[in-house]
Amino acid sequence: MLDRPTNRPDLPEEIARRRTFAIISHPDAGKTTLTEKFLLYGGAIQMAGQVRAKGEARRTRSDFMQMEKDRGISVSASAMSFDYSGYRYNLVDTPGHSDFSEDTYRTLTAVDAAVMVIDGAKGVESQTQKLFEVCRLRDLPILTFCNKMDRESRDVFEIIDEIQENLAIDVTPASWPIGMGREFIGCYDLLRDRLELMDRADRNKVAASIEISGLDDPKLEQHVPANLLEKFREELEMARELLPPMDPQALRDGTLTPIWFGSAINSFGVKELMEGIAGFGPEPQIQNAEPRKIAPEEPKVTGFVFKVQANMDPKHRDRVAFVRMCSGHFKRGMKLTHVRSKKPMAVSNPVLFLASDRELAEEAWAGDIIGIPNHGQLRIGDALTEGETLRFTGIPSFAPELLQTVRAGDPMKAKHLEKALMQFAEEGAAKVFKPAIGSGFIVGVVGALQFEVLASRIELEYGLPVRFEPSQFTSARWVTGPDKEMDRFINVNKGHIAHDNDGAVVFLTRLQWDIDRVVRDYPELTLSATKELM
Ligand code: G4P
């Protein structure tokens, strides 16, 4: 394990050893495979020896998904924790589908770092770029894994240049690949001057690690075929000359990303990446909140809900709120204050997602993600504290950009539809508006694919076929103001008024002109495109 270069040497050990991160990537780059290998190293799953042939590999993976399904845990949506080499890793998964949802943004508010996985043959792809931009908004530290080096991939300098240019971030090589495709034999670990060789025969084993003392070490000649060695020496010299060295502070600031090369499917480079996450972290960070920031080492427990997931177990219709712990030492059974309702809440059955199973969380520290089953009290953005009134900031809510009307295939099932829609609205999966006049609901989303996802979830989870149809409205604005002015406004604009799932008043329109008119005619009202989550 690398020494821990930290800017917080004073943190208690339990907090200092926690690493909470997400993986960002374009579909197919290898996120699932990498996640599985993390879990394998973390001892959370045992697949060793099973994943050999391609066909078998596929079966194993779908078995794994099936296993998750059987247990009611969705790999694509939850947080998983595992231990490796003295560190506790909390991996928060970002949604897998390609449409961009609010979920992803919120997930990234719960982590301290992100691992960016790119395919060595494809480089920076569109979804990676989008997700990267979100990370940048939050100055999240990013560690990069260039995957599939066992296949023909692009020239290493070209890959690094592309990252530097497209993402405007400095790149420092943490490892350097030797050969590629069929000739790929392994990597040179620049952080520790070690040769890491890949074992093609056993995908779950990291082969030899050989200490090297510089590029002239004769041991290189013993292990690296002559045709690769010369090119490798040249490249490494050039890399050291042209590329910046590792700088932990620049990584923490989000201005430099170290890159590891490897092959997730061959378990190659994964261990080094995990050690990189451990070594460079960062540890749980200070969280922005009003009226004051929260430091992880504060003795009192605080946390916020960044995700709500309904129907994780279709048999039980439970709802789990995912809470990022921000400070203190949480113990099961603790009474916390639910700040929004100002009510105490006994947290008696929190769950920790230890990948292999859903376990009761006996305790949790800053940085951990716990799931709290509840009946709808906990909403995205809610804070839990030991009494203090706090609001964690930076959890975004998005203006719905696309509005559609939704109807149940069977008109007799309108009540069921309402229930399903309210559930999704609470999850933050969509904005749901009930017009003051007429029947039906209007659903607002950020990306078009969300309509499809919603339709299939409503059918799957509620057995209710639904139809989405174009709505006469294209914009929604939340309206607030003094009661008298609100009443006057609502009476005059009935055909444009709707209520969201909290009963808040929303003005629906298709013209910017309408919005400008309301602003002019009702100076005491405030119109906003988003709703504060608290
Ligand atoms: P994703 O979650 O990012 O979408 O990617 P996933 O891990 O599902 O991987 C996408 C495909 O890339 C899979 O192939 C997977 O096996 C393959 N893959 C992942 N890592 C590596 C690697 O290091 N080298 C090579 N050569 N391939 C890799 P698939 O054909 O979709 O499935 P399967 O038949 O391999 O199971």
Automatic annotation (TrEMBL):
Coiled coil: none annotated. GO terms for biological process: regulation of translational termination. It is found in: Cytoplasm. Signal peptide: none annotated. One of its GO terms (cellular component) is cytosol. Transmembrane segments: none annotated. Pfam families: EF-G_D2, GTP_EFTU, RF3_C. GO terms for molecular function: GTP binding; GTPase activity; guanosine tetraphosphate binding; translation release factor activity, codon nonspecific; translation release factor activity, codon specific. Increases the formation of ribosomal termination complexes and stimulates activities of RF-1 and RF-2. It binds guanine nucleotides and has strong preference for UGA stop codons. It may interact directly with the ribosome. The stimulation of RF-1 and RF-2 is significantly reduced by GTP and GDP, but not by GMP. NCBIfam families: prfC, PRK00741.1, small_GTP. HAMAP family: Rel_fac_3. This is Peptide chain release factor 3. It comes from Brevirhabdus pacifica.
